[in-house]
## 1
Amino acid sequence: MLSQQNLEKAQALFTRYPEKKAALLPILWIAQGQEGWISQEMMKYVGDLVGVPYAHVLGVVTFYTMFNDKKLGKHHIEVCTNVACLLRGSDKILSAVEKACGTKLGSTSIDGKFTVSEVECMGACGGAPMLAIGQEYHEHLTSEKTEQLLASLK
Ligand code: FES
């Protein structure tokens, strides 16, 4: 469930929309900010809060790659593999990430340090190929730069 502070933020959002269910996306964002991911229990809680069934919330969470329905590692590495990045070598970046993180795409390393995900265009095509670590973008990557970047993470 949401903390009291986050519940108040969610309730404030209701005033911005004609229906409570229209606030589903920003409330899920608040929930993810609180927990780092969105559990089934949280999806049910948020569904009750905005008045939509669990299946609807599950559909939203699993549709948008910005939402995580599993616990993540300490660092979430999101590699863009959409057209611009693909044409500029995102396959090599992804291989470098998997090697440096010691895990495969869609997985978390055994030590819990890295989770590697593939994402659609993140709007930074001019800097392709790119990846994001949390909210931070890293652009114009090469395999070497990627390995150095990941080695620098604590
Ligand atoms: S295609 Fe990778 S950021 Fe747009």
## 2
Amino acid sequence: MGMVIDGKWIDDDEKFRNPEGGAFVRPDSIFRDWVTADGSSGFKAEPGRYHLFLAPNCPWAHRTQLFRRLKGLEDVISVTLSDIPRVTSWAYTEGIGRDLEPIDGKFELHQAYISAVPDYSGRVTVPTLWDKKEWTLVNNESADIIRMLNTEFNEWGDTSLDFYPEDLRPEIDRINEIIYANVNNGVYRTGFAKSQEAYETGFNNLFNCLDDMDDLLGDRRYLCGDRVTEADWRFYVTLVRFDAAYYGNFKCNRQHIYEYHNLSNYLRELYQTPGIAEITDIEGIKNGYYRIGAVNPSGIVPIGPGDLHLTDAHDRDRLPKAA
Ligand SMILES: N[C@@H](CCC(=O)N[C@@H](CS)C(=O)NCC(=O)O)C(=O)O
């Protein structure tokens, strides 16, 4: 995959990543500054000041893209989606100015990390939240970024939507933890396992959790009750990739999401939320995942699975939804 060590891109990063017993370990994000409405953190929410570097196939990046759209912040925060295949880090035909412009036709995301911290050592990941005023990297953890988008930009965003309401926080946190470990990151633990045992553990945890969520959604419209919350959108990004990518490429093949009654209807309702289908790029998802050399050396992208039935009618109106 490659990473930056002492301010230089290196391709062979095997010894810097750290697999335990064949299990895939996702390192913690390093940049954790916070944009705040009042600027007390040093990063004040302002229109036109921040930029998000994203990639179409990445579920963590997708979370932030969803929140930007749902909260009506598209004119407030700019975005670029990786649109050329990676040779080193995530690559873009367009830059954002100054030293973050294409070199030989290609802007590569590690340029931003090294611009912010010249002797940076670590991974180069999407999403990356960049401050165009201070010209530095603010945060590269999607869980933080969606919380910022949910509240800190409310002066310009849709204040009627709160995906992390005070009264539901304990339940949202509880569900997030279960779904992150077993599903969001669980598909990676399954797909990137380097031993049979690690694969089987990841696989069983994943499907046990999906079974539980299918049951839960039998009488709850959304994961935490009758309101859509952050927990649902965090779940959505994995569910919508599942049949197109994880089922085949990550060997998560006990069953498809479309074979789960409640999960498939729930997924369709979220997909059909206004504005969401347009920023859910199934072809981009397939292309991105099947080009991960570590799991698919040939890089061949399958033709199937065909219609995922995301636009079919759903039956979720049978369950109550908060006004
Ligand atoms: N915890 C991070 C994870 C981000 C992440 O791992 N992104 C992947 C793309 S799906 C990436 O950029 N990987 C590149 C690498 O690991 O070098 C978040 O949620 O933002």
## 3
Amino acid sequence: MKTKDIRKLAANPRFIPGVYNYCDRWCERCPLSNHCLNHAMEQAEDDGDPAARDLSNRKFWDRLHRKFQGTLEMLHEDARARGIDLEDPKLQAEVKAQERAERRLAAKNRPLTRAAMAYVKAADKWFEAARPIFTAKGIELETLARLEAGNPRAEAAELSEYVEVIRWYQHFIYVKLCRAIESRASEELETDGEMKQFPKDSDGSAKIALIAIDRSISAWAGLREALVDDPDNILDLLAQLAAIRRETGKLFPEARAFVRAGFDETKAVPAGT
Ligand code: SF4
């Protein structure tokens, strides 16, 4: 999208500012998609070709590239309007120094992201090893359907829902915890008293990571109940997630109370189409 089109779209009052900052990016299921500028921009770019949503397809990356370019252009325009030169070598050196300092500070909390990455790998391993279990379950459900016994359709839908939820949040938890930890480092370095009063990005990011962990735990528990042949391995994954949740809670004790725009606010959503 061109900068002027983005600005025109953004002027629509139906959008909730910043609603996309701490969501789970699951737009198909999002109750606030009609109030989300990010979603509207995606839709404006969508030509209906599934290739544009496929990570392994060039079209997906081209579209992402265009989106970044548009955002970058807007950033440069806004900076120029405020008399800031983003190419200024002094400014760039300051940014680099700040990034180094943030990385050093963030390092102390890396065990949490390492645990989240270990979960990503363990879940992948589990799904790989569970192929025969799913095959056997499929045969069992097909047999039930032929015999018109039980409710195999509902059971299959439930199983697929558990898997979808787990897969959706599997990498998301890691990504959001990385962000929370990096933001925490940047907040710790903040010296401006006024800035310190704002709600913390680290808490918002940790909150959505915690929500993703909660939902993943529920989905794994459901899967464990449905697949009686594999209770122990799932138990290990549940223990991993429970530990990540505990550590996240300790590191970000204010996260659960963070109010996400649109999702946690009680005021009515803006009208409009
Ligand atoms: S707020 Fe909803 S529609 Fe917007 S990016 Fe997040 S999940 Fe998608």
